[in-house]
Amino acid sequence: MLEIATSKGRRPHIIMKRKFRFPANKEYKFKVDLYNIAPDEVTSEKLSEAVNKNKEWRVTRAQMRRIVDLVTPDCWFIRYNAQFNGQIDMVERNENAEFKRVERQDKEHIINWLGYQRMWVYFNEETREFEIWNLAIGGFTLKLDEGRFDKEWRGEPL
Fold first, then answer.
1. Nearest Cα to 67, choosing from 41, 100, 29, 40?
2. Which residues of 104-128 are buried (b: 16+ CB within 10 A; e: fewer)?
3. Are 142 and 77 in contact (CB under 8 A)?
4. What pTM did the predictor assign?
5. Whole-angstrom Cα distance, residue 8 to residue 114?
6. Strand, helix or coil at 70?
7. What's the chain's average pLDDT?
8. Rounded to whole angstroms, how far apart are CA atoms 104 and 33?
């Protein structure tokens, strides 16, 4: 299901919302902001093009905390893309990062990270990965174990 709404902010733009099904058959609405389509210029062609082009959907921190909390840690894989380095006082990208299985303490760490302000979370519809990042402390990617993909998590649009 796809919903279209107009923002009520200073710069009116279109917001697309789509429902996705996640653990325990819970449904979550993710959003994408379409700043390039003015509310008075909405056509079905522009919307279908936007749906096909935008594969990253914005997830709220509360939604992500709930998704992480519902799934056992051994179902997740994590890759640390960038981390804060105190010696140089900046965030460094980790070019050689690989996915590793999430441990119980990692799951608690992820939930704590999602409590920070200015934390951005995106769900990539094609790769089925969650990108979580903050400019001050770094970021990581979460994905679920594909061996358990069918049983516990589908992440499919409704």
1. 29
2. eebbeebeebbeeeebebbbebeee
3. yes
4. 0.77
5. 26
6. helix
7. 77
8. 34
**Contacts for 96 with CB less than 8 Å, ≥ 6 apart:** none
Burial (CB < 10 A; 0-12, 13-18, 19+), residue 86, is exposed
Amino acid at site 41: E
E strands present in 23-137? 26-34, 56-59, 76-85, 90-93, 100-101, 120-124, 129-134
State the amino acid at position 18 in one-letter form: R
Tens digits of residue pLDDT in 13-44: 778 888 877 766 677 888 887 776 766 777 77
Crossing angle for the helix pair 61-70 and 104-113, to the nearest 10 degrees: 170
Confidence of residue 152 (pLDDT cuts 50, 70, 90): very low
Number of other residues whose CB lies within 10 A of the CB of residue 37: 17
Specify the residue for token string 């509310």: 39
